[in-house]
Design brief:
Helices cover about 35% and strands about 20% of the residues. By secondary structure, the chain is of the alpha+beta class. Among the domains are: about 65-110 and about 145-260, no CATH class; about 270-370, no CATH class. A hairpin with a 3-residue loop joins β8 and β9 (about 250-260).
Length: about 375
């Protein structure tokens, strides 16, 4: 009786049953996929497999440089004559830069693979931002990518620096460029040769602008912060060439944003005082009380300057206030730890710029400073 509705023809009956079976299979597949994609472990496996496969694939070879003579003449090339960081990071400067690697030095850049974080997606939709197997915080480490240091020769503005330390930098900007040679670079001029420096700066940051078709967003955002009175690094640009011995020579990577490194030298020039404490936190739970031992805070707050015990204690004390104080006590005391006017100005800039990868969303890519003059 249950089969009475089927066609009498054997072939039509077979077709109908096959169609029903196919439909049920697709439904089952969809339901299974729905629950699989809700599984943090499956999400981790899928994303890490995709990233790992892309990182192992062949890279798109950079092209030969073609630059008219009149355009080449406009490049900033006289780095040896620099007298200040302000000249180095003049906003409209486009510096000539050339990184030269041996094949072994390029290979040493990796990325190396480390165990990823199992289940990096939390139930509330946030992402775990720290992998204890990786040396750096951020999604690159969470997906199991370690970015080791290597060595190279840097030609910058007709000045040559030998034996510089180089590594890839960034998280999303690095992951978005794993199939390209145009990756973001961090360069330490005096890690191996202590006499190296450039206008008082020893660490150089080159962003690859992979997520910015205008090539201007970073530059304009940093300038917007500075014009609003928020301390922020200065920027210039660099036209980057790449040589890998035995592979290619002087190939054009393209335009990079050249960002001033926020460190003790930057803080001294910007604030006019020694002893500023700089932090670059990576956390959704800023100033959560983690106890009285600074070791629990160090990796999360990633200090960029050498801290005194007093500065460490000040961060811990503020975390205790934020986490444990009643509303009345917090309202009465927060101004002793936090410059509320400065903080409000910073948040206003974040909102105006619609920053999707900062303190209000991903909990990263911002700086905190502790001024020794006001102890806040």
């Amino acid at each position: 009786m249950l089969m009475g509705w089927l066609p009498k023809s054997r072939w039509w009956r077979f077709f109908v049953l096959a169609a029903i079976g196919g439909f049920l299979f697709v439904v089952a597949l969809g339901v299974s996929a729905f629950f699989l994609f809700r599984s943090p472990k499956f999400q981790t496996w899928l994303f890490t497999m995709i990233m790992a496969r892309q990182s192992r694939g062949p890279l798109e070879e950079p092209r030969e440089p073609r630059l008219p003579m009149e355009a080449a003449a406009q490049l900033a090339t006289n780095a040896a004559a620099l007298r200040s960081a302000a000249e180095l990071f003049a906003t409209t400067n486009v510096w000539s830069a050339h990184l030269r690697f041996t094949s072994n030095q390029w290979a040493a850049l990796g990325p190396k693979r480390v165990p990823p974080v199992p289940g990096f997606m939390r139930p509330d939709g946030t992402i775990i931002l720290r992998n204890t197997n990786a040396s750096r915080a951020g999604v690159a480490g969470v997906f199991g990518f370690e970015l080791p240091w290597s060595k190279a020769i840097l030609e910058f503005g007709n000045t040559t620096f030998t034996n510089v330390a180089v590594r890839f930098k960034g998280n999303g900007t690095f992951l978005g460029a794993v199939r390209s040679y145009k990756r973001p670079f961090k360069i330490d001029l005096n890690k191996h040769v202590k006499s190296h420096g450039l206008a008082g700066r020893t660490t150089l940051n080159f962003g690859n602008l992979s997520a910015d078709l205008s090539l201007l967003s970073d530059t304009l955002a940093y300038e917007f912060f500075r014009e609003a009175g928020v301390p922020a690094p200065r920027t210039a640009f660099a036209r980057m060439l790449l040589t890998i011995d035995g592979k290619f020579a002087e190939r054009l990577l393209g335009l990079y944003v050249f960002v001033e490194n926020p460190d003790a030298n930057w803080a001294r020039e910007r604030f006019g005082v020694d002893g500023m404490a700089l932090f670059k936190p990576v956390t959704y739970e800023l100033f959560k009380d983690l106890g009285g031992d600074w070791k629990a805070y160090s990796d999360i707050y990633d200090p960029k300057t050498k801290l005194t015990p007093k500065q460490q204690g000040r961060v811990i004390e503020f975390a205790r206030l934020v986490t444990r104080a009643s509303d009345a006590i917090f309202t009465a005391q927060v101004g002793e730890f936090l410059d509320l006017d400065e903080f409000a100005r910073f948040l206003a800039c974040e909102v105006m710029l619609a920053n999707y990868d900062g303190i209000l969303n991903t909990g990263q890519n911002y700086l905190i400073y502790l001024d020794p003059r006001a102890d806040r």
